[in-house]
Design a protein that fits this description.
Elements (H helix, E strand, L loop, with lengths): L2 H15 L43 E6 L1 H4 L6 E2 L8 E2 L3 H9 L2 E4 L14 E3 L2 E3 L10 E7 L7 H6 L13 H9 L2 H4 L3 H16 L4 E5 L19 H24 L3 E3 L2 H4 L28 H15 L2
Parallel strand pairs: 1-4, 1-7, 7-8, 8-9
Antiparallel strand pairs: 2-3, 5-6
Keywords: Disulfide bond, Hydrolase, Signal
GO molecular function: triacylglycerol lipase activity
Protein name: GDSL-like Lipase/Acylhydrolase family protein
């Protein structure tokens, strides 16, 4: 375990109490995190491309940290590294961005990853994915981070709302149940900020020339009328799910502000491509065409996010 991994692991323990490449970089160097925002957002979508990439990035190294919404689970051929259960797709958005910007990629995204897995390994059925930060080197020029929805079981809690629509006449049966019996998944969202701040400060110490971009989460459900044949949920619970993901985005953006990093708001990027849209970027309970997995992004999301990221990184 490297010095930075031990440091992040210790921070992960402290935070809990309060609420494919190995590393070749040297000892972490101390940096002070800024407080002024350096936030950017994009509403672009379509095929990722770049004709005037930032000269600072061309030929450099990119490291991508994330969960299944970054890995692109089941949106294409699965890559075996860093572990097969990570389920990285061959054309996920980190790979599209790396190609567009002409950079070398270390994609450490992994299915079910939490913010703590930046500094701690993941294990599943005898396999282990190393800490995501182990992909970082001192010459890294770009770091993207899209984590937080799996912390404290939030993703499973929100997806579980699909089970309530058919068995309750309440307008918000899922919200009522979660807040009444298992509120921690929602109430502990602010802890995502402190976890990401600690991780980004370590990243900037180890790779001081790297741009860091924190990505928010998408809008997966529309406002108002829903599409129960695709994603069973009441209108009231859908509004609550969207609001809860908005709170998570606020926590991620706060971490970006506190560390003088960029923030990419994906809600405007995805608002017209919800699970109920004519051209959806997200699956509901069933996947008819093999593009993605249940309650996860489709390949269109990968391309849309890639284009938005490239736009943010253009000079």
């Amino acid at each position: 375990m490297t010095a930075r991994t031990r440091s992040l692991a210790a921070v992960a323990v402290l935070c809990a109490a309060l609420a494919g490449c190995s590393s070749t970089s040297g000892e972490p160097r101390s940096t002070s995190a800024g407080t002024a925002p350096s936030a950017s957002s994009s509403t672009s979508s379509g095929t990722a491309s770049s004709t005037s990439s930032d000269d600072h990035l061309v030929g450099g190294r990119m490291v991508s940290f994330g969960d299944s919404y970054t890995a692109g689970t089941a949106t294409g051929a699965t890559q075996p590294s860093p572990a097969s259960f990570c389920a990285q797709a061959a054309d996920n958005y980190p790979r599209q961005v790396a190609k567009a910007l002409d950079v070398t990629l270390a994609d450490r995204s992994c299915n079910a990853a939490r913010t703590t897995n930046i500094g701690t390994p993941q294990s599943f059925q005898g396999e282990t994915a190393p800490p995501q930060i182990d992909g970082l080197t001192a010459d890294t020029r770009l770091v993207t981070i899209a984590l937080g929805v799996n912390d404290n079981g939030l993703f499973g809690t929100l997806v579980g709302c699909s089970h309530y629509a058919a068995v309750s006449t309440s307008a918000t049966p899922c919200k009522d149940s979660v807040l009444g019996s298992t509120p921690n998944a929602v109430s502990q969202i602010p802890e995502v900020t402190s976890s990401l701040v600690a991780a980004v400060r370590t990243i900037k110490a180890d790779a001081p020339r790297a741009q860091v971009v924190l990505l928010g989460y998408p809008q997966v459900l529309p406002e108002g009328a829903q599409c129960p044949s695709r994603w069973p949920i009441t209108e009231g619970d859908a509004a609550w799910v969207n609001a809860t993901l908005g709170r998570l985005d606020d926590a991620i953006k706060a971490a970006a502000v506190q560390t003088d990093s960029k923030f990419l708001d994906l809600r405007p990027v995805t608002a017209s491509h919800t699970a109920c849209a004519a051209e959806p970027w997200f699956n509901g309970s069933h996947v008819a065409d093999g593009d993605g997995s249940s309650y996860h992004p489709r390949s269109g999301y990968m391309t849309g996010v890639a284009r938005a990221l490239v736009a943010v990184l253009q000079p």
